[in-house]
TrEMBL record:
Domain Peptidase S8/S53: 143-490
InterPro entries noted in UniProt: Peptidase_S8/S53_dom (IPR000209), Peptidase_S8/S53_dom_sf (IPR036852), Peptidase_S8_Ser-AS (IPR023828), Peptidase_S8_subtilisin-rel (IPR015500), S8pro/Inhibitor_I9 (IPR010259), S8pro/Inhibitor_I9_sf (IPR037045), SBT (IPR045051), Subtilisin-like_FN3 (IPR041469)
GO CC field: extracellular region
Classification via Pfam families: fn3_6, Inhibitor_I9, Peptidase_S8
Residues spanning the signal sequence: 1-21
UniProt protein name: Subtilisin-like protease fibronectin type-III domain-containing protein
The Subtilisin-like protease fibronectin type-III domain, residue ranges: 556-660
GO-annotated biological processes: proteolysis
Gene Ontology molecular-function annotations: serine-type endopeptidase activity
Source organism per UniProt: Eucalyptus grandis
Record-stated family: Belongs to the peptidase S8 family.
Inhibitor I9 domain boundaries: 28-103
Amino acid sequence: MKCDMLYKLFLLISTIVSASAKNYRKPYIIYMDESALPTSFSRHHDWYTSLLSSLSSSPDEIDPTHLYTYNHALNGFSAMLSQSQLKKLEQVPGHVASYPDTFGNAHTTYTPKFLGLNRQTGLWPRAEFGDGMIVGMKQHGLNISTTDDYDSPRDSFGHGTHTSSTAATGMAPAARLAMYKVLFLTDTYDSAATDTLAGMDQAIADGVDILSLSLGFDETSFDLNPIAVGAFAAMERGIFVACSAGNDGPRGYTMRNGAPWLTTVGAGTVSRDFAANIVLGNGTLTVRGKSIFPEDLLISRVPLYFGRGNRSKEICNGYSLDPKDVAGKIVFCDFVSEDYEVNTHEITQAGAAGAIFSIGPGALRIPENFTIPFVAVVPEDGDRIKDYLLKSENPTVSIKFLITIFGTKPAPQVASFSSRGPYQIAQIGESYLLGDYKLESGTSMSAPHVAGVAELLKSAHPDWSPAAIRSAMMTTAYILDNTNEPIIDMTTQASGTPLDFGAGHIDPEKASDPGLIYDIEPEDYVNFLCGMNYSANQIKIISGRSNFSCASATLDINYPSFMVILNKTNTTSVTFKRVLTNVADGPASYQATVTTPSSMKATAKPSELWFTSKYDRAEFNLTVEISLEGSIPRRNYIGNYGYISWKEINGTRVVRSPIVSAYAL
């Protein structure tokens, strides 16, 4: 009897497990061959839904659920499927590939004037402020109740509203905005690949001119990356796609969105600070720090607390602060990590009136989420404050808030959080104020700047391809800061490299009249994928093409930069072939100037290029020789960099491209 009961219990458990396995479903993205549409169907959507309805034959199995049909960003659909349903679907004629859904995340953490845009002259009026251009934003959505710039798609985080106001208000005031919500999870910055592709698919169908995506997925092969796949289709239709590089800096080779048909944007600082003046005691010492406390407030002679002798209290670590010690006081935190924002909550809970953080230069950022006043100071000033605290029996502090300083130097700098390249361009992404109410940092804030400038360039030059727009931005970008010195890395305070800031910081006015461009056709990217040894199926997924040839496979496409991948030998020599197109009115001539360190030699042949008319083209070869013995070890790579500049003869235009050597990972 006992054995019989155990046997029945075993059968019951087995049945439950079996039923559970049958009903366990996951979302999948299904790529289909567009040309395999049966003649009995007039639309691919009808074919896909018919396929799904034919997959379930077992009464105890949940039917598949159709999620999206993709007609533009890719050929296929997404659906909730069990393993058995997926296996059946993969046997259907016309099936190309199936991938489980993945998740990406948003890249978040006075600028038109900083970029040189002027309402009276130059690119803004010439492009009619982007009038007639439509920019598609892929984000959390848009909060329409705040000029304060909600219905779904509403933005519960402020991230989408923030980035969209950059592109369509800050950069191109007359442009139209199309918002596509792809981040639906209410408590995270995560976005599903199925939703991201649906947003891109709809944007392409709607005919947007520009796409801005301030999110990214883990770097994998391009066929597994939804942004890379969707952006290829957008590029083929003439849509410029700007993407954020990610916020995993300052570690090297951390960039997201690395497909060459994208324009990938890192982050830099702007020449503006939100400041507060700190006065210790009765005027013994005055220090200026960073703060965005939004009140014109003077805190006068408030007790200043420092947890001397207890390192946890000194750095305001965790819940080490005792409310009896800090209530109503300003707390000084001798802290050196950029994660200091996590402590603001504990300080507030302890009842402090505010805090002063002493933090490293690479981490000197403004606390963005706060409920009481906070000021951040550099370590040198932090040491001066600490010295005062150690010498005073009853230390006090006065703080004056709401001070905005313009023209700070040096600027721009490479933001500490910005993922390192190689990417194409760097742009403002550090403490950027938008929509009158929210200040954020991140490469999420950088991408819409570039998208907005792309709107202006597309409006001024409707015939320019996405590659032409990117080329114009890259070859006219500046690499010196407002002290006329090389742009520095915010973390190290040393000169940055093209792996930190790409081709440089964007100069919209110069980009509108670049003289020459490096243009790229969609077929060139297919040849590049062939050169990368992508399989025919992978190329079909990325490009949407069933018929293509790899006879012209290459790793060297007509890109406005030059990258030498180093090997284990002492010398490396690579020859690149490029074609330049004259986009200025009338004939023009240019001469090559190469600037390289001693360990790098670069030679352009021919060294002069002549163009008889607008849209005339000229070819050149650039041979780069690298000596590893003379290469400089750097934090992010071992190699070196220089530049080739095509300078207009009897003119002022300069077309500059970086030359970089680095080890492959």
